[in-house]
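Structure ticket #2291
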Amino acid sequence: MLLIKNGLLFTMNEPEPFYGDLLADKGRLVRVGGKIAATGDMQVIDAQNMQVYPGFIDAHSHIGISEEKTGRQGDDCNEGTDPQTACMRAIDAINPMDSAFHNALAAGITGAMVGPGSSNPIGGQFAFIKTDGRCVDDMVVLAPAAIKIALGENPKVNFGTNGNMPMTRMGIASLIREELFEARQYFDDKSAKPRFNMECYRELFEGRIPLKAHVHRADDIFTAIRIAREFGLGLTLDHCTEGHLVTEKIAESGFPAIVGPSLASRSKNEVCRSDFSTAGVLDKAGVLVALTTDHPVSRIQYLPLCAALAAKEGLGKMQALRTITVNAAKICRVDGRLGTLEAGKDADIAIFSGSPLDIDSSAVYTVINGCIVWKNEQVNG
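Resolution: structure written out below.
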C-alpha cells in the first residue's frame, strides 16, 4: 500500500483543492481525503507543502514511435507506401525504451494517446498507454483507442507530389469516404466472410472508439465533421489550429478538440494561425478541450508548460489543469480509470513542489499503478 499524507489535493472532480491524504492499494486508489493513519505495511510519502494531481495525460503523441536520438532507424511514424493503412496498430511500433518516456515521467505525465502520424488519409490505430514499462502490452490501457485520419497538407505532400492519389483535399476526403463506405457495407452484410482489413473498423462502427482527425485549417475541421456525421461516427478534432476562428460551429458539432502543438514553430501554411489562445476560446464556447505536445513536434515534458501558456492566454489555471487531466481522459475514453483522484480509479499520481503551471515548480514524485516510478532526488535529497 502507498500512503500520501498532508498534500494539497487537486482531485479534478472537486471545484477547489483541499488538504488531505490518499491511500492506494493493489494499483487503485481506495481512499481520497481526510486523515489516514499509517501502518507498518504502508510506504509513506509526506507531501507537506506539495500539490497532488492525477497523473497528466498527453491526448495526442508519437512517443516511442518517433524515437529520440535514433534517426530514421527509430522513426516508425508513417507508412508512406499506401494511403489506406487502418490495420496498422500503434502497439507494434511503440518502443518503451525510447528515452522520451523518462522525460515524461519526470514531468508527471503518466498516460499518453499514441499512434501513427499524418502522412496517410487513414493512418492506423492509436493506443492509450501508461508511460512506465518495458513491454508495451503491460502499458496498454486501451487498444485500439481510435483510428487516425488526416486531412490537409501532409497527405497531399506525401502522395500528391509523387503523382499518386490524393493530390487534393477532395482526393483525401474521397479516399476516406470510400474506405468507410466499404466498411459499413461489410458490417451490414451479415453473410460476409471475415476480412482483416475491415474488422479493424468494427469498434469504430460500434461506437466504442472515435475517428482521430488530424485537422489544422478550418475547412479541414469541417470536412472531418462532415464525414463523421455522414457515417454516424465519433470524432476528435486533433490540433484544431484554426478552431478559434470557427468556434460556434465546432461547439455545435459536439465533438471535442485536442489543441496543439502551440509551442512548435509555424513550419507550414496550415499552422500559420497557431496560437495559445485557441484552447481558451473553444473552452468558453463549451467545447471539451485537451492539449497535445504532438511529441516529438514539441517534447512531451513541456505539456505542463503548454497548459501554463494556454492558461495565460485566456484558458485560466483550473481549466488548463483539466485539459491535461480529466478532459484528456474523457476525450481519450479512459475516464473510467484515469483523469481524477477518486476511490476505485488507477493510482496514477503526480506530486509537485508547487503548481505545475509555475516555471519554478518541479515534479517530486510520479506514481503509476500505486508504485513510485520516478523520484526527484534533487528535491528529496
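Closing remark: Residues 169-188 form the longest helix (20 residues).
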